[in-house]
Amino acid sequence: MLFAVACAPHAPAERATSLSDWAPLPLVVSDASHAGDGSDVQDGPDAHADGDAGERALGGFPEQLELLDGTDTVGVVSVPLGAREPRPIMVALHGGSEKPERACPAWRAITEAYPFVICPRGWGGDESRLGWRNPSDTNQRIARAVAATKKTFGSWVDDTRSLVLAGFSMGGSQVALVARRDPQTYRRIVVGDSAHDPRAALAFAGEWVTGGGERALFLCTTSGCEPSMRAAARRVARERAHARLNIAPTQVHALSERAVQSMRRDWAWLVEGAEGWQRYAPPSEGLPGKTEEFDP
Question: Which residue, 13, 33, 293, 294, could crosslink 237 as a Cys pair with Cβ 3.0–4.6 Å?
Answer without folding.
Answer: 294
